[in-house]
Amino acid sequence: MSSAVTNGPLAGWGRYQPRSCAVYRPERRAEVAELLDAGAERPFIARGLGRSYGDTAVNATGSVIDLSRYNCMIQFDPETGVLECEGGVSLAEILDAFVPRGFFLPVTPGTKFVTVAGAIANDVHGKNHHLDGTFSNFVESIDLWTPARGVLTCSPEENSEVFWATVGGVGLTGLILRARLRLRRVESAYVRVDYQRCAHLDVALEAMDTSDNDYRYSVAWVDCLASKGSLGRSVLMRGNHAVTSELPAKLASAPFRLPKRPTLAVPLDFPGFALNSWSITAFNTLFYAANRDAKDKLVDYDKYFYPLDGVLQWNRMYGKRGFIQYQATFPKEEKAGLVKMLEHLASARRASFLVVLKCFGAAGRGLLSYPTPGYTLALDIPNRRGLEAFTRELDQILLDHGGRLYLAKDAVTDPETFAAMYGEDLAKFRELQGTLDPQGVLRSDMSRRLRLTEGKDA
Amino acid sequence: MLNVRSPLPKSVVILGATSGVARYIADQFARLGYAVGLAGRNMEELDRLAVDIRTRYTVSCHTFYFDALAFEGHGAFPVQCEEAFGELPGGVVLCFGFMADQADAQADFAIARRTLDTNLTGAISILEPFAAAFEARKAGFIAALTSVAGDRGRKANYIYGASKGGLTVYLQGLRNRLHASGVQVTTIKPGFMDTPMTYGMKLPGPLVASPEAAAKAMVKAVTGRKNVVYVSCFWRYIMYIIKSIPEWQFKKMNL
Lengths: 458, 255
Hints:
heterodimer; A: 2 domains; 5-stranded antiparallel β-sheet; B: about 260 residues; alpha/beta; Rossmann fold; globular
């Protein structure tokens, strides 16, 4: 058996600097085994639904194994809520199958079109990080194919070192073939949301500090073009899963049914001039003006968690040259860094639309896992001339204030900057990676760009 | 006059269940609450897919060893299904098929023969026993995946096209025969779908359907008791144009 391969330009979700890659897309178990054994050109990297923004799952030297069709579910225990599935199962598929049975994802990023394996390899977080931590907190165990040691079952108890290197390890410790994931029991498909407008960053941060713990989910959309007296003006959107007793009779009779809504798509690349600082200012101003403070609004989970998933291929909005997403975290005591970055964004007028702001809770144990306690900002930056110089300026603010970047988003930073942010943990990761993959079978454009591994490629 | 029909069991057998779009067809039926039977040669894969369906949906799912080329066993297959489901299943969807490279099929008769044996002879051999059983019950549905390649012979794939064209004609006749007994026959003509069969081919993106969307349209056609359905639907118009080109012109073309 030999697997078909495509050759063509491949990039992350930001469509920033596509590279020509050989991509396999196995569907059968034996096909996956054969590719890992010897079939796939080495070195390779796993890819899921391609929602990492940068070059995490891109590999121009060697090949890419797309596991999005390796997506069978294996078993579900309604008593414990534990689902066992193959790595390629998407969060959308889990919602589809289990929300009607009263279970929700324990942690979800802002898109449901990611695979379980991708969620673990990037140790994704969601709006509940302040209470629940990252995705890996709900992973009971994984089956990981490693070049040197074959398939290992890893969990916080078993092969725990490998587990914590794989969590956030962007695919460089192996391929996550199976995972056992603990789902959350819910009474409805709805979230009860409070909307609160904050005229200045200080108001938003104050609200987060004092009352985030009243909400399972908390996030703010910030107008990054507002400056001075309205610097960081934002809309806080915080909520809890609605219980049946809070639903009006009409919804309570079918608490797990979602309203039907059409799926939109961006059918082609927008021209470069479509997004400019005027159109964006207009959008941001309207967004702030149109939102009213509201309490206890019932919002279905699709609308609350995945507003952009309703527009397929929204990344085309940024045109052919693509964009990057910049996500940065500042420690709590370094609020000055956050302010500086917002001021810089407002004056440079490069960032697009709304910026997402959230306050993280405690850090997890994944070596390269991103969230650390403090404030995190995420923003889109269209790819225009001078982009790299601009992100270097942002990186410098981060370095000055003890902040860090997120591998799932990064496409441009350099190895020194990354090493300064992850320090000892990166050294530990590289050492362990070397023992699991002494021949250099697992590599990606990102691992080469940021020197995430030691030793040569296969 | 009242049309009295025995209630149709909500169950379906998928023949060739590990092939391309078949898994998604099975998924769509399971989503609608059908008990599903997965039939094919690769038992390891069938079991994997069956476990998947049972986990996602609370429906029963059986697996059957089935080889489209083992004609002699086909007569007893509906009975085998009946034993597993506890009753004759409501319907059957034929998804298996074999497509070789046209040049190989021209050069090697064994390949051409395998194409015809699988896609046409094998289909007739397994659908006749089901047709007889459904006809006797006076209820049921039969659906089969043929191909737009069977609508008109082209030099690029006429041996495959001949096998699928033959299947299309067979289904027409079968539909005509079974109409009297209330058994629905649906001819499904898929265009390009994003499956392993086309993976790696250079195809114009907008013409390629996702297997999920294709399966959804197919199952809707089957449960809606349609006769002939193109998936995606625009292929009906593309093929209408292709079929309308006069032969003296068509023979000179490179399509």
